[in-house]
Amino acid sequence: MEIPSKYNPEITENRWYDYWMEHNYFHSEPDDREPYTIIIPPPNVTGVLHMGHMLNNTIQDLLTRRARMMGKNACWVPGMDHASIATEAKVVAKLKEEGVNKSDLTRDEFLKHAWAWTDKYGGVILEQLKKLGCSCDWERTAFTMDEERYAGVIKVFVDLFNKGLIYRGHRMVNWDPEAQTTLSDEEVIYEERQGLLYYVSYQIEGSDEKVTIATTRPETILGDTAICINPDDERFRHLQGKNAIVPICDRVIPIIEDTYVDIEFGTGCLKVTPAHDINDKTLGEKHNLQTIDIFNADATLNSFGLHYEGKDRFVVRKEIAKELEEKSFLIKTEQYMNNVGTSERTKAVIEPRLSDQWFLKMEDLVKPAIKGVLETDDIQFFPKKFDNTYRHWMENIRDWNISRQLWWGQQIPAYYYGDGQDDFVVAETAEKALQLANEKRAATTGNTESLEIKDLRQDEDVLDTWFSSWLWPMSVFNGVTNPDNDEVKYYYPTNDLVTGPDIIFFWVARMIIAGYELRDERPFENVYFTGLVRDKQRRKMSKSLGNSPDALELIKQYGADGVRVGLLLSSAAGNDLMFDEELCQQGKNFANKIWNGFRLIKGWEVTDLPQPEASKLGISWYRSKFNQTLAQIEDHFSKYRISDALMAIYKLVWDDYSSSLLEIIKPAYQQPIDRTTFDALIDIFEQNLKLLHPFMPFLTEEVWHRIADRSPEEALIVASWPNYKPADIELIEGFEFADKVISGIRTIRKEKNIPMKEALEVSVLNEENVASDWDTVIQKLTNVTEISYVDATVEGALSFRVKSNEYFIPISGAIDVEAEIAKIQEELNYTKGFLKSVEKKLSNERFVNNAPEKVIQIERKKQADAEAKIETLEKSLANLN
After folding, report:
1. Which of 255, 217, 60, 145 shows the shortest CA–CA distance to 695?
2. Contacts of 192 (CB under 8 A, 6+ apart)
3. What value does the mean pLDDT take over residues 380-394?
4. Does 139 lie in the same domain as 54?
5. Residue 722 included in any domain
6. Longest Cα pair distance anywhere in the chain, in angstroms?
7. Can you give the pLDDT at residue 100?
8. What's the CATH number where 111 sits?
9. How confident is the model at residue 373 (pLDDT cuts 50, 70, 90)?
10. Taking a C-beta distance cutoff of 8 angstroms, is the pair 360, 284 a contact?
């Protein structure tokens, strides 16, 4: 088979991915092998491939491919998340473009549009992952809104409700006015923003006196129901029991006392708006205050907003400030840095809002999950530093707000049958709910008249998207609806989870909680946290900044293997990756290096010749070096140092194989290579390809099949991972010694401009009586015709030292002796001057007594290095004179 002069990733990648799919290598079924299971962090159905996905999924793929080669039954389950907020926003926007408002549709009508959008645009990212080479079991693709996953979510909700762990409560929540839904605490991102502190005066009822409060939100004045002072604040003691008048709306409100008020902040007086601040709500409940909600769901003002009704909160902030100033209520404003909560999805500023919501009690649920990670090491985090992050959140956890005011998602299975607060039941189906409602109504009211299905009203809200994805390791194997099925018993718990630390609370911790609660078992064994992909300026990559390259364009330009290598070379676990396209170019260069090396050896003529000693020694050395590196790679994988594992392979293939071994065994120009060496080299090359395959699947599979005509059962994707054999350390050390000698001879050739074609002779002053096993290799790689061993210094020769051995190269007219003497003398004079300055510093007692020990050691090393260099230069001068 003719080998093209250039490697073409685009043609190769398409061909081999189709081949893998055709022969069903990615699919897994339970059998008698050890399972290796990994579940994809399901990307949003709205998503497209970005750099974070590229890094995360490349790591998952290489772990899966390696496990497959190790003989395990590898199963990588792909899927998508329905992303309630993001998807509903996309559908609403699409409908708006068509002149349709969501409010004009019924729930069923809207869901038809949502499914149509999902069918058309959803899943794009999964197709893009194929371009990256991801070997997912596509037959197992799951979706958090498909029938099986939907049923599992509803079942879990009902079970947890029946256990008393889910409840409905009127609480202050985080409200996203853009998505018009509540959010959990974890979905609120706090940002420091520059704002203003407004000082506003309130008239004391029945007097001319005024009291001043400081607020960052003057628009909420219209919802004030009290002013609070600290009972220990002597400045305001005279106001006890009095009332104040709210500016603009002229509402009379009480002045209350509570030690909650910080005497030092602002004016020491606090306006209390129970409907719009969590702390104010607490004060309101304690002092029986009225609650006045001034906002609509979209954060425009309602009828309590008086003449501002219908206007956006931020518009009102400016306008009401102007009105307060015109009416002499606004005393002054000051610049103020405020911590503002924003929606993780829509970026809208969060509004605290009182609302009826569903909550999951977390206090007892987290206990097994804390133990499993932090006490028993049942689950291991890599890197370990994330244990502390996990601990802090789990030990300070609050009840999870699991309801969302959306239509796209799993509808909460609560059914209302009356007007009372407790007139509802929770059931998996409406039929079961009807039965429970009739029983409950009869038991609580004595009314035995049967209700009908039409008398039930299902809760309008859906469940938080994370309430479906926290079941993911179980639900992908139908382990929620059918907990004893063969698949979940075989594949669960899964082995590795690869994800970003930014969702440790949203997803990782919750999956662990669910695993212990629902199956009394961990969901996975190891969690590998990747870093975030940032640009060279350390900025997180994002569309808004325009600093995120098009992932598919990168693959097109550098090849999937090149991009994979480029990403992985700089992606130590848990540390952010500073992405630079040069990394992908480095990966592409590596692919070309392997391809060109393959073309080189396939271009040699092979005959039945005796094997040269240098080739025999080189082959033996490389096998030992391979095994030494394999041991390092296995250690790196055991500690999830993926970047280090790749770097070890990279150096092995680039330096040891390409730069050293191929040079050692390469036949002379237009001469054949012996069959023994060639066959051994092919075997070595194949072992290299096995190590490289998880990282560079396309290139390696292409070369693997060009080496020999192989059946589908012999494809590289299902080949056996190399077996470790003990390395011959003496052989490795012998080459390292020889390599330094080779480097020394080449340095002299380069410095003295002696061409490689000019043969040299080398003499060795062998003080340690080192064996000359490697002389044949040294001679071949440096064009040295003879290496002789001598008992004394060779006059008129250049020299260098390796350990205790001094090597001499007679120059015999190859260089200008006088010019060389002058050059060495100049360098000698400079080094002596440098040594003198170092010795002066070390003879200074004040410096030696006061400088850190590390600094002293550096200076002493400079002294030793200078002395050694002077000795070498003086010997070189003596040899030349």
Report:
1. 60
2. 337, 338, 339, 340
3. 93
4. yes
5. yes
6. 122
7. 92
8. 3.40.50.620
9. very high
10. no
Which pLDDT band, with edges at 50, 70 and 90, does 1 fall under?
Answer: low
Three-class secondary structure assignment of 434-491: HHHHHHHHHHHHCCCCCCCHHHCEECCCEECCHHHHCCHHHHCCCCCCCCCCHHHHHH
CA–CA gap between residue 219 and residue 315 (Å, rounded): 9
CB 789 within 8 A of CB 764: yes
- How many other CB atoms are found less than 10 A from the CB of residue 239? 18
Whole-number Å distance between alpha carbons of 493 and 794: 71
The values of phi and psi at residue 764, to 5°, are -125, 125
The H or E element spanning position 433 is: helix 430-445
CA distances from 282 to 170, 229, 261, 275 (A): 13, 15, 12, 10
**Terminus-to-terminus CA distance in the chain, angstroms?**
60
Quick one: 345 and 227 in the same domain? Answer: yes
* CB-CB contact of 48 with 523 (8 Å): no
One domain, residues 516 and 484 = yes
- pTM for this structure? 0.84
Give the helix/strand (H/E) hosting 687.
Answer: helix 675-692
Give pLDDT, residue 869. Answer: 87
Transcribe 134-166 into DSSP letters. ----GGG-EETTSHHHHHHHHHHHHHHHHTT-E
Q: Is 411 part of a structural domain of the chain?
A: no
> In this predicted structure, what is the pLDDT of residue 544?
58
Same domain, 503 and 593: no
| 328 burial level (CB within 10 Å; 0-12, 13-18, 19+) | exposed
Query: Rounded distance, CA 351 to CA 172, Å?
Result: 10
Of 767 and 144, the one with more pLDDT: 144
The angle formed by the CA atoms of residues 336, 340 and 342, to the nearest 5 degrees, is 155
State whether 807 and 860 are in the same domain. Answer: yes
What's the DSSP call for residue 716? G
Distance CA 355, CA 609 (A): 87
Q: Which amino acid is at 561?
A: D
